[in-house]
Amino acid sequence: MEPKTTSEVLLQALPYIQRFRGKVVVVKYGGNAMVDPALSAQFAEDVVLMHQVGIKPVIVHGGGPQITELHGRLGKQTEFKDGHRVTDAESLEITRMVLVGKVNREIVSLINRHGPHAVGISGEDAGLLLAAERHPELGFVGDVEAVNPHIIERLLAEDLIPVVSTIGSDAAGQAYNINADAVAGAVAASLGAEKVVYLTDIEGLQRDVADPTTLINRATATELDALVEDGVVGTGMIPKVAACTHAVRHGVTSAHMINGTTPHVLLIELFTDAGIGTMITLAETP
Fold this sequence. Notes:
The protein has 10 helices and 14 strands. By secondary structure, the chain is of the alpha/beta class. The chain has a single domain, classed as Acetylglutamate kinase-like (Carbamate kinase, 3-Layer(aba) Sandwich). A hairpin with a 7-residue loop joins strand 6 and strand 7.
């Protein structure tokens, strides 16, 4: 990059660095970005840079492809109902092993290549995620009943990057697998985050998932409710939309859906005027 171009990029980033310094940004990480080694490494670099300029990133991750892969290796069939993985006791242990023991550790390791910044935690740790059974037919699949953000706040106060896997537990200690989109929105709300950012496999929320030109650049929570009601939002995007609207209705300034397969997409979203993806707010922004 030419020196002049470098200086222009840095100057464009400066007001955003000043604006978001000291603010919490929750990032939901999953999908193809997680299974592509190059994108995973770039994601870690983005998170470390955010941290180094004073932003407080909190990572909430899924692991659907990895869970499905291990189910297959163990000869266990995967069943879905209404977009949720049916989770019996054996499937729960597989999911726990993948999310807590494998994916979480890999993300922490990638970030910590750049310094001792990240700490992995589970929703079961210190009562972070109180879960409730979603439906008996789904087995040990839960919804977020409440978030106790104390452990995350302590880690942030120590200038660390929390990396959260989405296994929660109920009051009796029974573990549940919880949708990572819902967890990210609930955690962001509990922390009073400035932003919650969802890394997806498309450019953002589209009226037609097959047509990138139908991208919705901005929407309010009420507008998204109407799109869901009218059937414009596809089934696969409904959990993300619900999580985004929950977040902005509970104090998060904005929620974003962006394409996690774009190199360094977090930095583009945070530090440039590009206006990528879909931004959701509580009310119309000027």
